[in-house]
Amino acid sequence: MNLYKYASPAMFYPLAGKMIPWFAIPAALLFAAGLFVGFFIAPTDFQQGDAYRIMFIHVPAAWMGMFLYVLMAVYAGVGWAFNARLSSMMASSLATTGAMFTAISLVTGAFWGKPTWGTWWVWDARMTSTLILLFLYAGFISLQAAIDDPRRADRAGAVLALVGVINVPIIYFSVQWWNTLHQGATVRILGKASITPVMAAPMLLILAACWLYSIAVVLARLRVIILEREQNAARFAEVNA
Amino acid sequence: MNIHWPDLTMGGYGFYVWGSYLFSLVAIVWELVSLRQRKRAVVKEERPAAARPTVLRGSTHETTS
Question: How far away is chain B from the Cα of A36, in angstroms, using its nearest Cα?
Answer without folding.
Answer: 9
